[in-house]
Amino acid sequence: MNISDDRISQAESLRVRVIGAGPTGSVLALSLANKGAEVYLYEKNPIANIKSRNRAYAITHSSRRLFQDVGIWDELEKHLQSFSILRIQDKEIHKQIDITLDDLCSNNRSYNSVGWILEHRILMDILMDKVLTNKNISLFEDNAPHANDSTFNLTIAADGGNSSSRHIWRSKSLGFSYKQGCLTSKVLIRGANPSTAYEIFSSEGPLAILPMGGEVFQVVWSAPLIKCYQREGLTESEFLDRLSSVLPCGLQPDVLLDQPKAFQIRFGISSLPKRSRSILVGEAFHRCHPVGGQGLNLCWRDIATLSKLINNIIKGNLNINNVPIQFLATRFIDILFINFFTDVIIRVFSNRNPFLLFYRRLSFVILKRFLPIRRLLISMMTDGF
Ligand SMILES: Cc1cc2nc3c(=O)[nH]c(=O)nc-3n(C[C@H](O)[C@H](O)[C@H](O)COP(=O)(O)OP(=O)(O)OC[C@H]3O[C@@H](n4cnc5c(N)ncnc54)[C@H](O)[C@@H]3O)c2cc1C
After folding, report:
1. 96 CB under 6 A from ligand 1?
2. CATH assignment, 15-55+120-175+267-382
3. Domain locations in the chain as residue ranges
4. Mind listing the pLDDT tens digit for each residue in 24-60?
5. Which residue in 277, 5, 3, 313 sits closest to 151, CA to CA?
């Protein structure tokens, strides 16, 4: 095959190098391999290590559609904890609103879930089983070679927030670190509804309580970074006491089920790499605040877009040299909207500024009274643009 050809005929196979086998890179590898591409997947850390991260993800309907397309939804679904209510509370102005199935479009409503919660380990176990048995994927547990290798038609970096590809390919990045950090932990909470996810706003930052089955919940607790690190070091009873003071009335944290882990939150959007046929995806491309559980869903929407573009290449409708710019053009608005929307939410809702309290009250009134606005907002967050 002459790799320098711009058009890849259906008979020939597309050779793609994917850097990073995290949640973005491994779903990408499967998606491309299913379309018939030959995928060379590089992961610098041992697979056992990347599987063992202690996290849980909120899954939206856009991710559900991608998993259906990749053929892993039926298997994943058995392990998902569905929630049918998203309860948003503002502790400073004592307002609350429930997002329910009625707020979804009819296609999404038929799944009886506003969203789902999934443990990282389960996701990665399923993904890695599929990756290792897919004949179109070769997995290398090694640092990806960065040299421009003309035997590949496309190189896609899914190497995470600290992406080295981004630097090597001289992609410019607009970004900053939030003063807020985030602390995640699994906690047994009494009195919480197992089919409700909670997002609670206070002056410190948002707190998400995500159902994981029975009385077990994943806590995603944003606060000034220094406080997050201090809380990481608290004893179990001190931690539960502190958590109890920010939980809504009636919810009582009882047992800490794992070691709380704090991490820094960054905002970031990168430009096109200055190297042809090279693309950044997932957190290598963009990072946002975890409020609303948008980050990883946004990464997976990158994959859905790339997958469509690869289809067009295979059908002969798209020149491979145009893939990076087409990808950026298609993803730009969704990424910009989610990054700036989450940023505004944090700035407006993480304080007690009396001027902003007025707008916070107003936003609850608008969301409660105007169903079309509420539906539009939910659709943008769960389906993307
Ligand atoms: C401590 C912590 C806790 C979190 N908890 C949550 C949570 O509870 N819920 C939630 O929704 N999100 C959470 N997040 C965010 C979430 O983990 C990210 O959104 C998600 O991991 C992004 O996926 P990714 O595949 O794009 O990047 P990553 O998961 O970072 O994967 C990138 C992969 O690329 C590999 N790699 C890097 N460089 C190279 C190279 N040169 N060659 C080969 N491989 C390379 C890395 O080893 C890594 O496996 C958390 C993040 C952190 C840091």
Report:
1. no
2. 3.50.50.60
3. 15-55+120-175+267-382
4. 999 999 999 999 999 999 999 999 999 998 899 999 9
5. 3
